[in-house]
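WARN retry 2 of 3 for item q-0093 after timeout on previous attempt; input resubmitted unchanged.
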Amino acid sequence: MLAESYIAGLPRRWGIKLAGMFASEGYTKHAEKMRVVHAVQSEVQRVPLDAGEGALHQAADAAARECYGYCERYKLASLIVDGISLLCLRMGISRPVGATEQEIIARAVDKGWWLRKLRKEHIRRFEHTSIMLGFTSMQADPYVSREAAMRQRAYNAANQKLLESTTVTNGQDEFTLAELAALGVSNKAIRRGELMLRIRGFEEIADSLKHVGMFWTITCPSKFHSVGGANAKYNGATPRDAQAYLCKVWARIRAALKRKGIQPYGFRIAEPHSDGCPHWHMLLFIAPEHETAMSDIVKAHALREDGTEEGAQKNRVKLVRIEAGKGTAAGYIAKYVSKNIDGYGVGDHKAFEDGRTYIVQTDIFGNAEITASERVTYWSQVWGIRQFQQIGGAPVGVWREMRRVAEETVRNAHADVRAAWMACQKIESDDPMIARQADYAEFMKALGGPTVGRRGRVQLARRNTVIEGRYATYQEEKPCGVYHVTNANAVYESVRYQWSRVQPAEVVAAPWTGVNNCTREWLRELEKRSKDNAEILKNQKICSANVVIDRDGDWNGDGMRLKPDIGPMSDYLKHRKNAEQRAQEDHLRHLQSKFKDRNG
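OK item q-0093 returned
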Protein backbone atom coordinates (compact mmCIF):
# COMPACT_ATOMS: atom_id res chain seq x y z
CA MET A 1 0.00 0.00 0.00
CA LEU A 2 2.97 2.30 0.64
CA ALA A 3 3.99 2.02 -3.01
CA GLU A 4 0.52 3.09 -4.13
CA SER A 5 0.90 6.38 -2.24
CA TYR A 6 3.96 7.19 -4.35
CA ILE A 7 2.25 6.49 -7.68
CA ALA A 8 -0.84 8.61 -7.26
CA GLY A 9 -1.40 10.77 -10.33
CA LEU A 10 0.34 8.40 -12.74
CA PRO A 11 -1.44 6.37 -15.43
CA ARG A 12 -2.72 3.09 -14.00
CA ARG A 13 -0.41 0.86 -16.06
CA TRP A 14 2.65 2.82 -14.95
CA GLY A 15 1.53 2.80 -11.32
CA ILE A 16 1.06 -0.96 -11.23
CA LYS A 17 4.45 -1.59 -12.84
CA LEU A 18 6.29 0.87 -10.61
CA ALA A 19 4.59 -0.49 -7.50
CA GLY A 20 5.87 -3.93 -8.41
CA MET A 21 9.42 -2.61 -8.93
CA PHE A 22 9.47 -0.75 -5.64
CA ALA A 23 8.03 -3.67 -3.70
CA SER A 24 10.40 -6.29 -5.11
CA GLU A 25 13.62 -4.31 -5.56
CA GLY A 26 13.28 -1.48 -3.07
CA TYR A 27 13.23 2.29 -3.47
CA THR A 28 16.98 2.81 -3.24
CA LYS A 29 17.65 1.04 -6.53
CA HIS A 30 15.05 3.20 -8.27
CA ALA A 31 15.87 6.54 -6.66
CA GLU A 32 15.83 8.34 -10.02
CA LYS A 33 12.38 6.98 -10.84
CA MET A 34 11.21 8.13 -7.40
CA ARG A 35 12.48 11.62 -8.19
CA VAL A 36 10.52 11.62 -11.46
CA VAL A 37 7.36 10.46 -9.66
CA HIS A 38 7.67 13.21 -7.05
CA ALA A 39 8.23 15.80 -9.82
CA VAL A 40 5.06 14.64 -11.57
CA GLN A 41 3.04 14.82 -8.35
CA SER A 42 4.26 18.37 -7.69
CA GLU A 43 2.93 19.71 -11.03
CA VAL A 44 -0.31 20.98 -9.49
CA GLN A 45 -0.79 23.79 -12.03
CA ARG A 46 -0.95 21.50 -15.07
CA VAL A 47 -3.36 18.87 -16.31
CA PRO A 48 -2.54 15.59 -14.49
CA LEU A 49 -0.80 12.90 -16.52
CA ASP A 50 -3.58 10.39 -15.87
CA ALA A 51 -6.25 12.81 -17.13
CA GLY A 52 -8.24 12.05 -20.25
CA GLU A 53 -9.56 14.11 -23.15
CA GLY A 54 -12.46 15.42 -21.06
CA ALA A 55 -10.09 16.97 -18.54
CA LEU A 56 -8.22 18.73 -21.33
CA HIS A 57 -11.48 20.24 -22.59
CA GLN A 58 -12.33 21.42 -19.08
CA ALA A 59 -8.88 22.92 -18.59
CA ALA A 60 -9.09 24.69 -21.96
CA ASP A 61 -12.50 26.11 -21.13
CA ALA A 62 -11.34 27.27 -17.67
CA ALA A 63 -8.22 28.93 -19.13
CA ALA A 64 -10.22 30.76 -21.81
CA ARG A 65 -12.68 32.00 -19.20
CA GLU A 66 -9.85 33.14 -16.96
CA CYS A 67 -8.36 35.14 -19.83
CA TYR A 68 -11.77 36.59 -20.52
CA GLY A 69 -11.91 37.59 -16.88
CA TYR A 70 -8.69 39.55 -17.37
CA CYS A 71 -10.43 41.42 -20.19
CA GLU A 72 -13.29 42.29 -17.84
CA ARG A 73 -11.13 43.42 -14.92
CA TYR A 74 -8.16 45.23 -16.43
CA LYS A 75 -8.27 48.58 -18.16
CA LEU A 76 -5.22 48.32 -20.41
CA ALA A 77 -4.54 45.75 -23.11
CA SER A 78 -0.93 45.47 -21.93
CA LEU A 79 -2.13 44.37 -18.48
CA ILE A 80 -4.41 41.78 -20.06
CA VAL A 81 -1.48 40.40 -22.08
CA ASP A 82 0.66 40.26 -18.93
CA GLY A 83 -2.02 38.21 -17.19
CA ILE A 84 -2.26 35.88 -20.20
CA SER A 85 1.53 35.45 -20.21
CA LEU A 86 1.58 34.45 -16.53
CA LEU A 87 -1.27 31.98 -17.05
CA CYS A 88 0.55 30.40 -20.00
CA LEU A 89 3.70 30.11 -17.89
CA ARG A 90 1.76 28.28 -15.16
CA MET A 91 0.20 25.94 -17.71
CA GLY A 92 3.54 25.17 -19.36
CA ILE A 93 2.79 26.56 -22.82
CA SER A 94 4.10 29.47 -24.86
CA ARG A 95 2.20 32.74 -24.96
CA PRO A 96 -0.10 33.33 -27.96
CA VAL A 97 1.63 34.96 -30.89
CA GLY A 98 0.23 37.95 -32.68
CA ALA A 99 1.23 41.16 -34.42
CA THR A 100 -0.92 43.18 -32.02
CA GLU A 101 -2.06 42.87 -28.44
CA GLN A 102 -5.62 42.44 -29.68
CA GLU A 103 -4.60 39.41 -31.76
CA ILE A 104 -2.87 37.86 -28.74
CA ILE A 105 -5.97 38.39 -26.62
CA ALA A 106 -8.25 37.00 -29.32
CA ARG A 107 -6.34 33.72 -29.23
CA ALA A 108 -6.24 33.59 -25.44
CA VAL A 109 -10.01 33.86 -25.02
CA ASP A 110 -10.62 31.05 -27.54
CA LYS A 111 -11.12 27.60 -26.00
CA GLY A 112 -10.03 25.99 -29.26
CA TRP A 113 -6.61 27.68 -29.08
CA TRP A 114 -6.14 26.48 -25.50
CA LEU A 115 -7.25 22.94 -26.34
CA ARG A 116 -4.68 22.63 -29.14
CA LYS A 117 -1.89 23.96 -26.93
CA LEU A 118 -2.83 21.89 -23.88
CA ARG A 119 -3.08 18.70 -25.94
CA LYS A 120 0.42 19.24 -27.27
CA GLU A 121 1.85 20.14 -23.86
CA HIS A 122 0.14 17.21 -22.14
CA ILE A 123 1.13 14.50 -24.62
CA ARG A 124 4.76 15.71 -24.71
CA ARG A 125 4.97 15.86 -20.92
CA PHE A 126 3.35 12.43 -20.77
CA GLU A 127 5.83 10.96 -23.26
CA HIS A 128 8.83 12.65 -21.63
CA THR A 129 7.83 11.10 -18.30
CA SER A 130 7.48 7.72 -20.01
CA ILE A 131 11.02 8.08 -21.37
CA MET A 132 12.46 9.01 -17.98
CA LEU A 133 10.68 6.10 -16.27
CA GLY A 134 11.90 3.63 -18.91
CA PHE A 135 8.47 2.83 -20.38
CA THR A 136 9.60 4.01 -23.82
CA SER A 137 12.34 1.57 -24.75
CA MET A 138 13.08 -1.51 -26.82
CA GLN A 139 12.06 -3.78 -23.93
CA ALA A 140 8.74 -1.97 -23.38
CA ASP A 141 7.35 0.33 -26.10
CA PRO A 142 9.91 1.35 -28.75
CA TYR A 143 9.96 4.91 -30.11
CA VAL A 144 6.77 6.05 -28.37
CA SER A 145 4.64 4.75 -25.50
CA ARG A 146 1.47 2.83 -26.32
CA GLU A 147 -0.68 5.47 -24.59
CA ALA A 148 0.81 8.29 -26.65
CA ALA A 149 0.54 6.20 -29.82
CA MET A 150 -3.12 5.39 -29.22
CA ARG A 151 -3.92 9.00 -28.37
CA GLN A 152 -2.15 10.29 -31.48
CA ARG A 153 -4.01 7.71 -33.55
CA ALA A 154 -7.29 8.99 -32.08
CA TYR A 155 -6.34 12.59 -32.94
CA ASN A 156 -5.48 11.56 -36.50
CA ALA A 157 -8.76 9.67 -36.84
CA ALA A 158 -10.73 12.66 -35.56
CA ASN A 159 -8.93 14.95 -38.03
CA GLN A 160 -9.63 12.52 -40.86
CA LYS A 161 -13.31 12.38 -39.91
CA LEU A 162 -13.46 16.17 -39.93
CA LEU A 163 -11.84 16.30 -43.37
CA GLU A 164 -14.32 13.74 -44.68
CA SER A 165 -17.27 15.69 -43.32
CA THR A 166 -16.15 19.05 -44.73
CA THR A 167 -17.03 19.80 -48.33
CA VAL A 168 -15.56 22.70 -50.27
CA THR A 169 -16.19 24.10 -53.73
CA ASN A 170 -14.25 26.18 -56.22
CA GLY A 171 -17.41 27.29 -57.99
CA GLN A 172 -17.33 24.39 -60.43
CA ASP A 173 -16.60 21.19 -58.54
CA GLU A 174 -17.12 19.98 -55.00
CA PHE A 175 -14.73 17.81 -53.00
CA THR A 176 -14.30 16.81 -49.42
CA LEU A 177 -11.13 18.02 -47.76
CA ALA A 178 -10.13 14.38 -47.36
CA GLU A 179 -10.26 13.90 -51.14
CA LEU A 180 -8.09 16.96 -51.71
CA ALA A 181 -5.62 15.93 -49.00
CA ALA A 182 -5.25 12.50 -50.61
CA LEU A 183 -3.88 14.21 -53.73
CA GLY A 184 -0.92 15.73 -51.88
CA VAL A 185 2.04 14.67 -49.79
CA SER A 186 -0.20 13.93 -46.79
CA ASN A 187 -0.91 10.74 -48.73
CA LYS A 188 1.87 8.43 -47.52
CA ALA A 189 2.31 6.69 -50.87
CA ILE A 190 2.63 10.02 -52.69
CA ARG A 191 5.00 11.35 -50.03
CA ARG A 192 7.23 8.29 -50.30
CA GLY A 193 7.13 8.40 -54.09
CA GLU A 194 8.09 12.07 -54.31
CA LEU A 195 10.96 11.66 -51.84
CA MET A 196 12.35 8.73 -53.79
CA LEU A 197 11.95 10.61 -57.08
CA ARG A 198 13.98 13.53 -55.73
CA ILE A 199 16.62 11.24 -54.22
CA ARG A 200 16.96 9.46 -57.55
CA GLY A 201 17.31 12.84 -59.23
CA PHE A 202 20.19 13.73 -56.90
CA GLU A 203 21.91 10.44 -57.68
CA GLU A 204 21.50 10.84 -61.44
CA ILE A 205 22.92 14.34 -61.52
CA ALA A 206 25.74 13.24 -59.19
CA ASP A 207 26.62 10.43 -61.61
CA SER A 208 26.68 12.88 -64.51
CA LEU A 209 29.03 15.16 -62.57
CA LYS A 210 31.21 12.25 -61.32
CA HIS A 211 30.44 13.14 -57.70
CA VAL A 212 30.66 10.60 -54.89
CA GLY A 213 27.97 9.59 -52.39
CA MET A 214 28.58 9.53 -48.65
CA PHE A 215 26.09 8.11 -46.15
CA TRP A 216 26.53 9.62 -42.70
CA THR A 217 24.92 8.63 -39.40
CA ILE A 218 25.24 11.10 -36.52
CA THR A 219 24.06 10.30 -33.00
CA CYS A 220 23.67 12.44 -29.87
CA PRO A 221 25.97 12.13 -26.82
CA SER A 222 24.93 9.66 -24.15
CA LYS A 223 23.42 12.37 -21.94
CA PHE A 224 20.51 12.63 -24.39
CA HIS A 225 19.68 8.90 -24.15
CA SER A 226 17.49 7.43 -21.43
CA VAL A 227 18.17 3.83 -22.59
CA GLY A 228 15.05 2.60 -20.87
CA GLY A 229 15.76 4.64 -17.73
CA ALA A 230 19.02 2.76 -17.13
CA ASN A 231 21.53 5.41 -18.26
CA ALA A 232 23.09 7.19 -15.28
CA LYS A 233 24.40 9.97 -17.57
CA TYR A 234 20.94 10.85 -18.89
CA ASN A 235 20.23 14.52 -18.14
CA GLY A 236 16.46 14.45 -18.70
CA ALA A 237 16.62 15.84 -22.25
CA THR A 238 13.56 15.47 -24.49
CA PRO A 239 13.72 14.29 -28.12
CA ARG A 240 13.20 17.93 -29.11
CA ASP A 241 16.30 18.86 -27.10
CA ALA A 242 18.24 16.14 -28.91
CA GLN A 243 16.94 17.34 -32.29
CA ALA A 244 18.03 20.88 -31.45
CA TYR A 245 21.50 19.55 -30.62
CA LEU A 246 21.75 17.77 -33.98
CA CYS A 247 20.58 20.91 -35.80
CA LYS A 248 23.31 22.88 -34.02
CA VAL A 249 25.93 20.32 -35.01
CA TRP A 250 24.80 20.43 -38.65
CA ALA A 251 24.85 24.25 -38.64
CA ARG A 252 28.49 24.15 -37.54
CA ILE A 253 29.33 21.51 -40.15
CA ARG A 254 27.60 23.50 -42.89
CA ALA A 255 29.42 26.70 -41.94
CA ALA A 256 32.79 24.92 -41.90
CA LEU A 257 32.11 23.31 -45.29
CA LYS A 258 31.11 26.68 -46.75
CA ARG A 259 34.39 28.22 -45.60
CA LYS A 260 36.20 25.41 -47.48
CA GLY A 261 34.10 25.93 -50.60
CA ILE A 262 32.43 22.51 -50.24
CA GLN A 263 28.77 22.32 -51.27
CA PRO A 264 27.13 18.98 -50.46
CA TYR A 265 23.65 18.10 -51.67
CA GLY A 266 21.29 15.28 -50.78
CA PHE A 267 18.91 14.36 -47.98
CA ARG A 268 18.81 13.89 -44.24
CA ILE A 269 16.43 11.61 -42.35
CA ALA A 270 15.71 11.95 -38.64
CA GLU A 271 14.60 8.72 -37.00
CA PRO A 272 14.32 7.70 -33.34
CA HIS A 273 16.24 5.28 -31.20
CA SER A 274 13.98 3.01 -29.19
CA ASP A 275 14.02 5.49 -26.26
CA GLY A 276 12.79 8.32 -28.51
CA CYS A 277 16.13 10.10 -28.90
CA PRO A 278 16.60 11.03 -32.58
CA HIS A 279 19.62 10.38 -34.76
CA TRP A 280 20.30 11.50 -38.32
CA HIS A 281 21.05 9.61 -41.53
CA MET A 282 22.43 11.85 -44.29
CA LEU A 283 23.01 10.88 -47.90
CA LEU A 284 25.26 13.60 -49.33
CA PHE A 285 26.98 13.96 -52.70
CA ILE A 286 30.17 16.00 -53.20
CA ALA A 287 33.03 16.38 -55.63
CA PRO A 288 35.58 13.58 -55.04
CA GLU A 289 38.42 15.99 -54.25
CA HIS A 290 36.46 17.20 -51.17
CA GLU A 291 35.83 13.77 -49.67
CA THR A 292 38.68 13.78 -47.15
CA ALA A 293 38.10 17.38 -46.03
CA MET A 294 34.40 16.74 -45.51
CA SER A 295 35.08 13.59 -43.50
CA ASP A 296 37.41 15.48 -41.17
CA ILE A 297 34.92 18.33 -40.68
CA VAL A 298 31.92 16.09 -40.00
CA LYS A 299 33.78 13.92 -37.52
CA ALA A 300 35.31 16.88 -35.71
CA HIS A 301 31.97 18.60 -35.11
CA ALA A 302 30.04 15.41 -34.37
CA LEU A 303 32.54 14.64 -31.61
CA ARG A 304 33.05 18.21 -30.42
CA GLU A 305 30.75 17.73 -27.41
CA ASP A 306 31.61 14.86 -25.05
CA GLY A 307 33.78 13.32 -27.73
CA THR A 308 36.01 11.55 -25.22
CA GLU A 309 33.27 9.62 -23.44
CA GLU A 310 33.22 5.85 -23.71
CA GLY A 311 31.95 4.60 -27.07
CA ALA A 312 31.91 8.04 -28.71
CA GLN A 313 34.57 7.31 -31.33
CA LYS A 314 32.79 4.12 -32.34
CA ASN A 315 29.13 5.10 -32.23
CA ARG A 316 28.66 8.85 -32.49
CA VAL A 317 29.48 9.28 -36.19
CA LYS A 318 29.68 6.66 -38.92
CA LEU A 319 30.38 6.85 -42.63
CA VAL A 320 29.47 4.49 -45.44
CA ARG A 321 30.83 5.35 -48.89
CA ILE A 322 28.48 4.55 -51.76
CA GLU A 323 30.75 2.61 -54.11
CA ALA A 324 30.00 2.19 -57.78
CA GLY A 325 28.85 -1.30 -58.70
CA LYS A 326 27.61 -2.10 -55.16
CA GLY A 327 24.07 -0.84 -55.43
CA THR A 328 22.65 2.60 -55.93
CA ALA A 329 22.51 5.40 -53.39
CA ALA A 330 18.74 5.66 -53.89
CA GLY A 331 18.39 1.96 -53.22
CA TYR A 332 20.55 2.24 -50.12
CA ILE A 333 18.42 4.97 -48.57
CA ALA A 334 15.07 3.63 -49.80
CA LYS A 335 14.61 1.41 -46.73
CA TYR A 336 15.15 4.37 -44.41
CA VAL A 337 12.55 6.43 -46.29
CA SER A 338 10.00 3.64 -46.34
CA LYS A 339 10.40 2.46 -42.73
CA ASN A 340 9.85 6.03 -41.53
CA ILE A 341 6.64 6.52 -43.57
CA ASP A 342 4.61 3.36 -44.06
CA GLY A 343 7.01 0.39 -44.10
CA TYR A 344 6.25 -0.35 -47.77
CA GLY A 345 8.53 -3.07 -49.11
CA VAL A 346 10.80 -3.06 -46.05
CA GLY A 347 9.95 -6.45 -44.58
CA ASP A 348 11.12 -6.75 -40.98
CA HIS A 349 11.52 -3.38 -39.27
CA LYS A 350 15.06 -3.61 -37.89
CA ALA A 351 16.74 -1.37 -35.34
CA PHE A 352 20.45 -1.48 -34.52
CA GLU A 353 21.27 -0.47 -30.93
CA ASP A 354 23.97 -1.35 -28.39
CA GLY A 355 25.75 -3.50 -30.94
CA ARG A 356 22.67 -5.66 -31.53
CA THR A 357 20.03 -5.81 -34.23
CA TYR A 358 16.43 -5.88 -33.04
CA ILE A 359 13.27 -6.58 -35.00
CA VAL A 360 10.45 -4.27 -33.91
CA GLN A 361 7.26 -6.28 -34.00
CA THR A 362 3.71 -5.10 -34.66
CA ASP A 363 1.82 -4.61 -31.40
CA ILE A 364 -1.85 -5.26 -30.75
CA PHE A 365 -3.65 -3.36 -27.99
CA GLY A 366 -7.26 -4.42 -27.75
CA ASN A 367 -8.55 -4.25 -31.31
CA ALA A 368 -5.85 -1.79 -32.42
CA GLU A 369 -2.77 -2.88 -34.34
CA ILE A 370 0.25 -0.57 -34.35
CA THR A 371 3.10 -1.26 -36.74
CA ALA A 372 6.68 -0.13 -36.18
CA SER A 373 6.38 2.47 -38.98
CA GLU A 374 3.24 3.85 -37.38
CA ARG A 375 5.12 4.21 -34.11
CA VAL A 376 7.80 6.25 -35.90
CA THR A 377 5.14 8.46 -37.49
CA TYR A 378 3.43 9.03 -34.14
CA TRP A 379 6.83 9.82 -32.58
CA SER A 380 7.37 12.51 -35.22
CA GLN A 381 3.88 13.95 -34.70
CA VAL A 382 4.08 13.94 -30.89
CA TRP A 383 7.44 15.73 -30.79
CA GLY A 384 7.02 17.89 -33.88
CA ILE A 385 10.25 16.63 -35.44
CA ARG A 386 10.71 16.97 -39.18
CA GLN A 387 11.61 13.54 -40.53
CA PHE A 388 12.93 14.41 -43.99
CA GLN A 389 14.81 17.45 -45.22
CA GLN A 390 16.47 18.19 -48.51
CA ILE A 391 20.01 19.57 -48.39
CA GLY A 392 21.04 21.69 -51.36
CA GLY A 393 19.50 21.07 -54.74
CA ALA A 394 16.88 23.21 -56.43
CA PRO A 395 14.04 24.65 -54.29
CA VAL A 396 11.15 22.25 -53.83
CA GLY A 397 8.74 25.20 -53.78
CA VAL A 398 9.55 25.99 -57.42
CA TRP A 399 9.23 22.28 -58.30
CA ARG A 400 5.73 22.06 -56.83
CA GLU A 401 4.60 25.44 -58.13
CA MET A 402 5.71 24.54 -61.66
CA ARG A 403 3.28 21.62 -61.59
CA ARG A 404 0.45 24.13 -61.18
CA VAL A 405 1.42 26.06 -64.32
CA ALA A 406 -0.54 25.21 -67.47
CA GLU A 407 1.28 24.22 -70.64
CA GLU A 408 -0.08 27.12 -72.70
CA THR A 409 1.24 29.56 -70.09
CA VAL A 410 4.88 28.58 -70.70
CA ARG A 411 4.58 27.86 -74.44
CA ASN A 412 6.53 31.00 -75.36
CA ALA A 413 8.53 31.25 -72.14
CA HIS A 414 12.30 31.34 -71.68
CA ALA A 415 14.03 28.06 -72.56
CA ASP A 416 14.98 27.46 -68.92
CA VAL A 417 11.36 27.84 -67.82
CA ARG A 418 10.14 25.44 -70.52
CA ALA A 419 12.83 22.89 -69.62
CA ALA A 420 11.99 23.12 -65.92
CA TRP A 421 8.26 22.83 -66.65
CA MET A 422 8.78 19.75 -68.82
CA ALA A 423 10.95 18.09 -66.17
CA CYS A 424 8.16 18.48 -63.59
CA GLN A 425 5.47 16.80 -65.66
CA LYS A 426 4.41 13.18 -65.34
CA ILE A 427 2.69 11.75 -68.39
CA GLU A 428 0.61 8.60 -67.92
CA SER A 429 -0.08 6.45 -70.96
CA ASP A 430 -0.33 2.81 -71.95
CA ASP A 431 2.10 3.61 -74.75
CA PRO A 432 5.66 3.37 -73.33
CA MET A 433 6.84 5.79 -76.01
CA ILE A 434 4.57 8.47 -74.56
CA ALA A 435 4.55 7.71 -70.86
CA ARG A 436 7.23 9.41 -68.80
CA GLN A 437 8.06 10.14 -65.18
CA ALA A 438 8.91 13.52 -63.74
CA ASP A 439 12.67 14.07 -63.69
CA TYR A 440 14.19 15.96 -60.76
CA ALA A 441 17.68 15.75 -62.22
CA GLU A 442 16.61 17.59 -65.38
CA PHE A 443 14.74 20.09 -63.22
CA MET A 444 17.92 20.88 -61.26
CA LYS A 445 19.89 21.25 -64.50
CA ALA A 446 17.31 23.74 -65.82
CA LEU A 447 17.65 25.85 -62.68
CA GLY A 448 21.44 25.78 -62.62
CA GLY A 449 22.61 22.53 -61.03
CA PRO A 450 22.45 20.75 -57.67
CA THR A 451 24.31 23.46 -55.73
CA VAL A 452 22.34 26.43 -57.05
CA GLY A 453 20.18 26.69 -53.94
CA ARG A 454 17.89 29.72 -53.87
CA ARG A 455 19.82 31.44 -56.67
CA GLY A 456 18.27 29.34 -59.42
CA ARG A 457 17.47 30.67 -62.86
CA VAL A 458 13.75 30.14 -62.23
CA GLN A 459 12.28 31.70 -59.12
CA LEU A 460 9.01 31.49 -57.21
CA ALA A 461 6.76 34.50 -57.82
CA ARG A 462 4.74 35.82 -54.88
CA ARG A 463 1.80 38.16 -54.56
CA ASN A 464 0.68 40.13 -51.53
CA THR A 465 -2.59 38.57 -50.39
CA VAL A 466 -5.09 39.58 -47.72
CA ILE A 467 -5.78 36.69 -45.35
CA GLU A 468 -8.97 36.66 -43.29
CA GLY A 469 -7.71 34.65 -40.34
CA ARG A 470 -9.66 33.46 -37.36
CA TYR A 471 -7.98 35.90 -35.01
CA ALA A 472 -6.89 38.73 -37.29
CA THR A 473 -6.80 39.98 -40.85
CA TYR A 474 -3.27 40.27 -42.19
CA GLN A 475 -1.30 40.41 -45.43
CA GLU A 476 1.08 37.71 -46.56
CA GLU A 477 2.99 36.95 -49.73
CA LYS A 478 1.59 33.83 -51.37
CA PRO A 479 2.98 31.91 -54.40
CA CYS A 480 1.29 32.82 -57.66
CA GLY A 481 3.60 31.33 -60.30
CA VAL A 482 7.23 31.44 -61.46
CA TYR A 483 9.53 33.81 -63.33
CA HIS A 484 12.96 33.76 -64.95
CA VAL A 485 15.66 35.84 -63.27
CA THR A 486 16.34 37.73 -66.50
CA ASN A 487 12.84 39.22 -66.40
CA ALA A 488 11.17 39.32 -62.99
CA ASN A 489 8.15 41.15 -64.40
CA ALA A 490 7.17 38.26 -66.69
CA VAL A 491 5.34 35.97 -64.26
CA TYR A 492 4.06 32.65 -65.54
CA GLU A 493 1.05 32.32 -63.30
CA SER A 494 -0.06 29.06 -61.77
CA VAL A 495 -3.60 27.74 -61.71
CA ARG A 496 -5.11 28.31 -58.29
CA TYR A 497 -8.65 28.05 -57.03
CA GLN A 498 -10.56 29.99 -54.42
CA TRP A 499 -12.18 27.42 -52.18
CA SER A 500 -15.20 28.03 -49.98
CA ARG A 501 -16.94 25.71 -47.59
CA VAL A 502 -20.24 24.19 -48.65
CA GLN A 503 -22.63 24.74 -45.76
CA PRO A 504 -24.82 21.80 -44.75
CA ALA A 505 -28.54 22.01 -45.48
CA GLU A 506 -29.46 22.60 -41.85
CA VAL A 507 -27.30 24.70 -39.57
CA VAL A 508 -28.05 24.66 -35.86
CA ALA A 509 -27.07 27.95 -34.27
CA ALA A 510 -24.81 27.69 -31.24
CA PRO A 511 -26.11 29.20 -27.99
CA TRP A 512 -25.01 32.76 -27.29
CA THR A 513 -22.33 33.28 -24.68
CA GLY A 514 -20.24 36.31 -23.90
CA VAL A 515 -17.00 34.39 -24.39
CA ASN A 516 -17.73 32.97 -27.82
CA ASN A 517 -19.84 35.35 -29.88
CA CYS A 518 -19.02 38.94 -29.00
CA THR A 519 -15.41 38.50 -27.94
CA ARG A 520 -13.75 39.30 -31.24
CA GLU A 521 -15.59 42.53 -31.92
CA TRP A 522 -15.25 43.58 -28.32
CA LEU A 523 -11.50 43.00 -28.41
CA ARG A 524 -11.26 45.45 -31.26
CA GLU A 525 -12.55 48.09 -28.87
CA LEU A 526 -9.30 47.71 -26.93
CA GLU A 527 -7.58 49.66 -29.69
CA LYS A 528 -9.81 52.65 -28.94
CA ARG A 529 -9.16 52.83 -25.21
CA SER A 530 -7.58 56.10 -24.07
CA LYS A 531 -7.87 58.53 -21.19
CA ASP A 532 -11.58 58.84 -21.73
CA ASN A 533 -11.83 55.09 -22.37
CA ALA A 534 -15.04 54.54 -20.42
CA GLU A 535 -16.86 57.40 -22.13
CA ILE A 536 -15.97 56.01 -25.55
CA LEU A 537 -17.02 52.46 -24.74
CA LYS A 538 -20.32 53.58 -23.21
CA ASN A 539 -21.59 54.66 -26.60
CA GLN A 540 -20.13 51.82 -28.64
CA LYS A 541 -22.13 48.83 -29.81
CA ILE A 542 -20.62 45.39 -29.58
CA CYS A 543 -21.30 43.50 -32.77
CA SER A 544 -21.07 39.93 -33.96
CA ALA A 545 -22.42 38.01 -36.90
CA ASN A 546 -25.79 37.46 -35.19
CA VAL A 547 -25.98 39.88 -32.26
CA VAL A 548 -25.89 43.60 -31.62
CA ILE A 549 -26.06 44.56 -27.96
CA ASP A 550 -26.32 48.14 -26.74
CA ARG A 551 -26.51 49.50 -23.21
CA ASP A 552 -30.22 48.74 -22.99
CA GLY A 553 -29.70 45.11 -23.95
CA ASP A 554 -31.67 45.16 -27.23
CA TRP A 555 -31.21 42.28 -29.64
CA ASN A 556 -31.75 42.85 -33.32
CA GLY A 557 -33.18 39.43 -34.16
CA ASP A 558 -36.69 37.95 -34.12
CA GLY A 559 -38.01 40.53 -31.69
CA MET A 560 -36.22 38.87 -28.76
CA ARG A 561 -34.50 40.75 -25.99
CA LEU A 562 -31.52 40.07 -23.80
CA LYS A 563 -31.08 41.09 -20.18
CA PRO A 564 -29.11 44.32 -19.75
CA ASP A 565 -26.61 42.61 -17.42
CA ILE A 566 -25.48 40.05 -20.01
CA GLY A 567 -22.55 40.58 -22.37
CA PRO A 568 -18.99 41.88 -22.37
CA MET A 569 -19.97 45.56 -22.41
CA SER A 570 -21.95 45.38 -19.19
CA ASP A 571 -19.22 43.23 -17.64
CA TYR A 572 -16.64 45.83 -18.56
CA LEU A 573 -18.72 48.72 -17.21
CA LYS A 574 -19.26 46.78 -13.99
CA HIS A 575 -15.52 46.25 -13.47
CA ARG A 576 -14.10 49.45 -14.98
CA LYS A 577 -12.72 50.80 -11.67
CA ASN A 578 -9.20 52.06 -12.15
CA ALA A 579 -6.73 49.18 -11.73
CA GLU A 580 -4.16 51.29 -9.91
CA GLN A 581 -6.72 52.54 -7.39
CA ARG A 582 -7.87 48.96 -6.79
CA ALA A 583 -4.28 47.86 -6.17
CA GLN A 584 -3.76 50.70 -3.69
CA GLU A 585 -6.91 49.72 -1.83
CA ASP A 586 -5.81 46.10 -1.66
CA HIS A 587 -2.41 47.14 -0.33
CA LEU A 588 -4.02 49.40 2.27
CA ARG A 589 -6.21 46.54 3.51
CA HIS A 590 -3.15 44.31 3.70
CA LEU A 591 -1.29 46.85 5.85
CA GLN A 592 -4.30 47.33 8.11
CA SER A 593 -4.62 43.58 8.60
CA LYS A 594 -0.89 43.24 9.26
CA PHE A 595 -0.97 46.08 11.86
CA LYS A 596 -4.02 44.54 13.54
CA ASP A 597 -2.31 41.13 13.82
CA ARG A 598 0.80 42.63 15.44
CA ASN A 599 -1.19 44.64 17.99
CA GLY A 600 -3.77 42.01 18.82
